[in-house]
Amino acid sequence: MTPPQTGMRIGQPGRPLDARKDELILQAGRELLLRGGPLALTMEAVARASGVSKATLYRRWPHREALLEALVLREAQPLLSMLEGTPTDDAGLAAKLEAFLDSMLALMGQPGYRAYLQAIVALPQQQADLQRIWWLGPHQTMESVAALLRRYAAAQGRRWPAAARDAETLIGMAIGLEQARILYRQRPWRADARLRRRLIRAVVASFLGRRSAGIAVCEGNVGRG
């Protein structure tokens, strides 16, 4: 399946949209999504929870899918922005990856995120919704890590052919069994900030130590992961 087309907000020319109503809608949509997964996100429920009319809601987002995409992108953007730029050395790359992984695991430890994952598996969800969230959330995150690895290697005059595979490996190393703990309603082990950061430093050091030789060997080769 190809990535979904992100929904565009609409408005009448000459009539600026009220940003306060935008925020009410997005907050209400987020709470519904976290509590019940995408199944709970209907235009009727969002209008009711936000206290705006359906006409006001549809003026901003023409359909439910556009609102869902806006909510996913709003949650993902702070994480993705951490992967922008190009580190100049190994220490800079390690620091960027550590900060990103720390934020990702901190997000996973939040009660709202845990409730969302549990709702995803406990309630019947539309496959199209799950596919849309996958593309805009986890898949885009993996692609952004891979792009960072490629940019870093290019700045060193090298290539990182298996960047996509290695990005997935790195994220998997950091997450470990944390999602399983959430789904089985166990206390997130990595909620402790000091323990989490110590683990992340070890994961990134191990990851970069294993990959550095591989990048040098691939210097001059053509290909990408």
Describe the protein in words:
The chain is mainly α and 225 residues long. It is 69% helix and 0% strand. The protein has helices at residues 19-36, 43-50, 54-60, 64-81, 90-108, 111-122, 127-155, 163-175, 178-183, 193-217. Helix 2 (43-50) crosses helix 3. It starts with 18 loop residues before the first helix and ends in an 8-residue tail after the last helix.
List the main descriptive attributes of the protein structure presented here:
10 helices, mainly alpha, globular, 225 residues, disordered C terminus, 69% helix
List the helices and strands and how they pair.
Elements: H1 19-36, H2 43-50, H3 54-60, H4 64-81, H5 90-108, H6 111-122, H7 127-155, H8 163-175, H9 178-183, H10 193-217
Helix pairs in contact: 1-2, 1-6, 2-3, 4-7, 5-10, 7-8, 8-10
Radius of gyration: 20 Å
Distance between the termini: 19 Å
Broad structural category: mainly alpha
Please write the string of helix (H) and strand (E) elements: HHHHHHHHHH
Strand content: under 5%
Query: Helix fraction?
Result: 55-70%
**Mean pLDDT across all residues, rounded?**
87
Biggest β-sheet strands, sense, barrel: none
Give the number of DSSP strands: 0
**Based on CA inertia axes, which overall geometry fits?**
globular
Please report the number of helical segments: 10
The stretches of 5 or more residues where confidence is low (pLDDT under 50) are 216-225
In short:
With 225 residues, the chain is mostly helical. The protein contains ten helices and no strands.
